[in-house]
Amino acid sequence: MTITRREFSRLAAASAATSFVPHAFGQSAQRIRYAIVGLGRISMQHFMPATKGSATTQVTALVSGHPEKARRVAAVYNIPESSIYSYENIGKLRDNPNVDAVYIALPNSMHAEYSIRSAEAGKHVLCEKPMATSVADAEAMIAACKKASRKLMIAYRMRLEPTTLRVREMIRSGQLGTVQGIESANGFNIRAGEWRLNGKLAGGGPLMDMGVYSLNGCQFLLGEEPTQMFATASVIDHDGRFDEVEENLSWTMKFPSGAVAACNTTYGAGMDGMMTIHGSKGWLRMQPAFSYDGLHLTGRINGKDIDEPVAAKDPSQFVREAEYFAKCITDNTTPEPSGEVGLRDMKLMMELYRLSGRIKA
Ligand code: NAD
Predict the structure, then answer these.
(1) Are 278 and 221 in contact (CB under 8 A)?
(2) Contact between 282 and 272 (Cβ < 8 Å)
(3) pLDDT tens figures, 96-146
(4) Which residues of 66-76 are buried (b: 16+ CB within 10 A; e: fewer)?
(5) What distances in angstroms separate CA 286 from CA 128, 129, 186, 305, 309, one per listed residue?
(6) Protein residue closest via CA to atom 1 of ligand 1
(7) What is the C-alpha separation between 61 and 55, in angstroms, rounded?
(8) Ligand 1, residues at Cβ distance < 6 Å
(9) Atom 30 in ligand 1: which residue has the minimum CA distance?
(10) What is the pLDDT of residues 188-232, one digit of tens each?
(11) What letter does residue 311 receive in the DSSP assignment?
């Protein structure tokens, strides 16, 4: 991604605006210092500004293929030139005592290599979703982090989001009764030219990018893993965008309790992220369900309407994520979602591709 001067000024302003609002979500005693690997949209617009508003995390190094951009970002975050790395020399992080962890925000197929090299350099790894583009890569990431005694977390940000946690609690406590079915959708209409349409870099289409929220979310809410799945995929727009990845993928999952989830994902339409959960006592709906803020919960349980105010923006999902992983590091606890959660989703996504005919058995 190239960043224009105008975009850069906007990011600098966003970062300045959050500089004096410490949150300390998770109350970690020691500041955890992140190296950011990949200066694209998610890191520049969300994760890095979040650390500016955090009392327990900080960005102290950058890994980028664009030295000039890295220097400009470094100036905003007071990062010395000596803490700017290229992809080639990421291993030199080993010699930087001011970095505890890395945040990997690269195209999907690069997650494994840079997570492994970071762990080998002695750093804890917070890696964006999807964890990787193959089961073998996901397993190698777990093995590398284990070998180096470093923590590995997959950035499933909804698992720390208050509305999602509230719905999960309402299900777990029995308020919704027996869950019978879930509907979930998530997608957007993609522009041509994105790396997300490149099979080698993305590993797959909207399932890997957007559908993974439904896949992971259903399991998180139910506390179960699917035992039976059906899937189908399609391409409607033959305009060159979907030569290498699917445009649409729809699937169902049956869970051990008998609950069935029906999910849709697309790169061909603006599909508002949504989850509706139907239980024997009523229903709950999060819409939007996966956005960075503004999650809205409605429903009806035992004849009583539910319309809960949108969860507060502050602390942002990214502050929660950065601080939660920091706390796992300082407290020496295993992050949840762990690498194993990411691996499980990788296995399920590969199975969905096989079932839908996108990859041969
Ligand atoms: P982006 O295109 O904005 O940024 C990608 C970064 O990788 C850029 O800095 C780019 O320079 C770098 N890069 C290095 N090699 C590259 C190559 N060969 N081709 C393209 N870019 C290359 O992407 P993004 O939207 O920031 O996504 C990055 C990762 O974050 C993806 O894995 C994506 O799934 C994930 N993501 C997560 C969320 C979330 O909410 N958790 C949201 C968006 C993206």
Answers:
(1) no
(2) no
(3) 999 999 999 999 999 999 999 999 999 999 999 999 999 999 999 999 999
(4) eeebbebbbeb
(5) 23, 21, 12, 14, 11
(6) 40
(7) 17
(8) 1, 38-42, 65, 105-108, 128-129, 155, 157, 195, 201, 209
(9) 105
(10) 999 999 999 999 999 999 999 999 999 999 999 999 999 999 999
(11) P
Q: How large is the average pLDDT for residues 44-64?
A: 96
Q: Compute CA 121 distance to the chain's CA centroid, rounded to the nearest angstrom.
A: 23
- Identity of the amino acid at 324: Y
Report CA(170)–ligand 1 centroid distance (Å): 34
112's enclosing H/E stretch is: helix 111-120
How far, in Å, CA of 336 to CA of 280, rounded?
29
- Specify the pairing of strand 57-63 against strand 124-127: unpaired
18 pLDDT more than 50: no
Q: What is the pTM of this model?
A: 0.94
Cross-strand bridge partners of residue 300: 283, 305
Catalytic residues: 129, 213
Contact of 202 with 242, CB cutoff 8 Å: no
Give the C-alpha separation, 257 to 35, whole Å: 42
Tokens encoding 264: 């849709």
